[in-house]
Amino acid sequence: MKWTGEKLKNARLQKGLTQTQLGNMLGYSAMAVSHFENAKRSIPARVEADLDRLLDFHAPKPRYHTVHSPSNLHRRERFNALVSDFKKNGFTEQQASFLINLMDGFVPLY
Question: Are both 10 and 44 inside the same structural domain?
Fold first, then answer.
């Protein structure tokens, strides 16, 4: 998807992320994110692909399991521990949940 500076800023704000937080997720500085948002710097294709994954609201939703098997209970404990770690680093609970659900598609949580 083609990202514009305005679309990037709107998506970032809607997800409740600061420029610093998004920059850390992308491997860029907050200043670079600001430059992307203000069209002072074009958004590289690699960054656009990461933005599609991190901020696109049309991405597939993660599946949630409601059965409380031992493996799901362990998963919930790990989830809670990760939320706690994210909150210690300045993320809100909503941001932490978003990032953990995002990681869930790429990194096993066990």
Answer: yes
Q: How many domains does the chain fold into?
A: 2
Q: How far apart are CA 76 and CA 80, in angstroms?
A: 6
32 Cβ contact partners less than 8 Å away, ≥ 6 residues apart:
23, 41
Residue 62 in any domain: the answer is no
**Residue 13 lies in domain:** 5-55
Would you write out the chain's pLDDT as a tens digit for each of its 110 residues? Answer: 688 999 999 988 988 889 998 888 888 899 999 999 999 999 988 888 888 888 865 544 445 444 444 455 566 677 777 777 777 878 887 777 777 666 655 444 44
Tell me whether residue 90 is in a domain.
yes
